[in-house]
């Protein structure tokens, strides 16, 4: 099965750019995500982490 797919992919011209593009998108996304996590303000992180606890109604638990 893999041999069939590999032979079929080799016959398509210009397909070698797609793995490079997908790797760049993956790398850029995680670099931006890492940068956002490092530069996020502590107050914002604390506020967002407490959101699930704000609207709890003890009578429904």
Characterize the structure shown:
It is a single chain. With 61 residues, the chain is mostly helical. 72% of the residues lie in helices and 0% in strands. It has one domain. The longest helix has 23 residues, at 17-39. It contains four helices and no strands.
Figure out the total of helices.
4
**How many structural domains can be distinguished in the coordinates?**
1
Tell me the fraction of residues in β-strands, as a range.
under 5%
Low-confidence stretches: none
Shape: elongated
Order of helices and strands: HHHH
User: Kindly, what is the distance between the CA atoms of the first and last residues, rounded to a whole number of angstroms?
Assistant: 52 Å
Class of secondary structure makeup: mainly alpha
Rg, nearest Å: 23 Å
Main sheet attributes: strand count, strand direction, barrel closure = none
Query: What's the β-strand tally?
Result: 0
Mean pLDDT: 85
Q: Helix amount, in percent?
A: over 70%
A few lines on this structure:
This protein is mostly helical.
Topology overview:
Layout: H1 2-10, H2 17-39, H3 42-49, H4 51-54
């Amino acid at each position: 099965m893999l041999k069939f797919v590999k032979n079929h992919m080799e016959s398509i011209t210009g397909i070698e750019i797609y793995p490079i593009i997908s790797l760049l998108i993956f790398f850029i996304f995680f670099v931006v995500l890492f940068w956002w996590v490092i530069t996020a303000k502590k107050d914002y992180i604390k506020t967002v982490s407490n959101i699930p606890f704000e609207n709890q109604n003890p009578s429904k638990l």
